[in-house]
Design a protein that fits this description.
The chain is of the alpha+beta class. The chain has 4 helices and 5 strands.
Amino acid sequence: MLDTRGHNLPIGTICIEDLEIGMTRSLSKTIGDKEIEMFAELSTDHNPVHLDDDYARDTIFEGRIAHGMLTAGLISAVIGEQLPGHGTVYLKQDLKFLAPVRPGDRVEAVVSVKDIDHSKRRVALECLCRVGNTVVVKGDALVLAPSRKFD
């Protein structure tokens, strides 16, 4: 479950007709052992770097880390719940993983409108996740936004 105090605006939909370049939405969530274990079960990714303290200590990370896609999933939550929100369809996502997220880290996912193609209902989004001042994931997404004219 998302930390409701981490949302900067209400959940819902912003139709493409109301989107503006520069609009930004975000959410924050603490990634704990429970989230990592649940993601491992759902994804079937049981890599011991995520789940086994002894194994993870001997890796380049020197300890357990969260799944990268668990962290990136917070970007999906912002897109699907806030910007543009309900009814949005993912078309493309490019990500670069820059730093690990560790159990107990609070991750902030931020999504901003970069470009809007009204004729195709496509919206380009800049995406990032950070822990404190450290950007841990960054990238771009392309989505099909809901429209009052068609939905």
